[in-house]
Amino acid sequence: ASAGVVDTSAAQRGPDDRLILAEVASRGAKDRGGNQIALFQDIDSSIIQRRSDVDKVGFLQMALIENRFTLHAQRIHPIGATSGQKFELLARLDWDGATDTSPANFLSAAERYQLMAAFDRWVINAALTQIANADSPLEIGLCMFSINISAQSIQDSTFVEFIESRIAETGVAPDTLCFELTETSLVRHLNRAQKFVHRIQRLGCHVALDDFGTGYSSFAYLKSLPVNYLKIDGVFVRDILENSLSKAVVSSVIQIADVIGAQTVAEHVETPMVQTYLQDAGIHFVQGFAIHRPQPFKSVLDELHRSPNVVDFDELLDLRVPGGTLKMQGLG
């Protein structure tokens, strides 16, 4: 059994709030292995985090209902090869009037109180709606947009059907979408993850394995779970110039990706020197503040529309080439 205790004489709160604090403390006792008692203390970091999550969960529920989230996008830059543009989509929340709030401020509460599946659905719905309504369909057709999927969504048996229905309703091309799964969530729910990946890939979407190298049993499950991209966790990227172990891990991931036919993405690239090292090492893509800082997704879509590479199809049809032939290829 796990128990939580609140000192009512020290906690100058009403009975309802005291019960909430006792529940927070009891969950903390359970997280520490159970069969123990935890006293609510404002100096206990794990207790503080749980208390913070309790305070946020109601606001998160309202934020989902009221569409108070916004999407940002961060560019994933190709190295040494021509490739369509790639972006990872990130959610931000207007929290107490502060915009551009980091996900770290609300994802802990969403995970703890089983809101991640609803949050993932919001992100997918918002992303596909904005892509479908964008003014640059030709340029978007050459891009790829990555969306993070939580472990709670993988366990939801109706989640794939939701993705399929939204793609059909919006008309977004499946091959412009990439779904990112963390290695930890994949290993914990391997059977469901396999079904999810195979079904998504049959649909025409791409799959990336995020935070690769930090999970429980790296490499072994790749035999039965082919993915399109391996994203190397930033813990091995930030110090790669000084840490020989990080260099060895990155090198091994590159070799394994080559064997399974996947491409590699290095996250948290924060200096040009790190980018140069990764390029020489054979990484396919880099992502981080040295490349691009996240900006509102709408601004990214507007920039794609203004890109000199975009050709107005109606204007193209009006072109006249005297004595010659106009060829069009690669438009898909």
Topology, element by element:
Layout: E1 2-5, H1 15-31, E2 36-39, H2 45-66, E3 69-78, E4 86-95, E5 98-101, H3 107-112, H4 116-132, H5 137-140, E6 144-149, H6 151-154, H7 159-170, E7 177-182, H8 183-188, H9 190-203, E8 206-212, E9 229-232, H10 244-260, E10 263-266, H11 272-281, E11 285-286, E12 295-296, H12 297-306, H13 313-317
Parallel strand pairs: 1-2, 4-6, 6-7, 7-8, 8-9, 9-10, 10-11
Antiparallel strand pairs: 3-4, 3-11, 3-12, 4-5
Please describe what this structure looks like.
It is a single chain. Strands 3-4-6-7-8-9-10-11 form an eight-stranded mixed barrel, surrounded by four helices. The protein has 13 helices and twelve strands. Helix 1 (15-31) packs across helix 2 and helix 4 runs parallel beside helix 7. 33% of the residues are buried. It has helices at residues 15-31, 45-66, 107-112, 116-132, 137-140, 151-154, 159-170, 183-188, 190-203, 244-260, 272-281, 297-306, 313-317, and strands spanning 2-5, 36-39, 69-78, 86-95, 98-101, 144-149, 177-182, 206-212, 229-232, 263-266, 285-286, 295-296. It is globular. It is 43% helix and 19% strand. It is of the alpha/beta class and 332 residues long.
Number of helix segments?
13
- Averaging pLDDT over every residue, what do you get? 80
* Sheet of most strands: 8 strands, mixed, barrel
Give the CA-based shape. globular
Beta-strand residue fraction: 15-25%
**Any low-confidence stretches, pLDDT <50, length ≥5?**
310-332
Number of strands: 12
Structural class: alpha/beta
Give the proportion of residues in helices: 40-55%
Q: Please give the alpha-carbon distance between the first and last residues.
A: 61 Å
Spell out the helices and strands N to C: EHEHEEEHHHEHHEHHEEHEHEEHH
Give, in spatial order, the strands making up the sheet with the most strands: 3-4-6-7-8-9-10-11
CA radius of gyration is: 23 Å
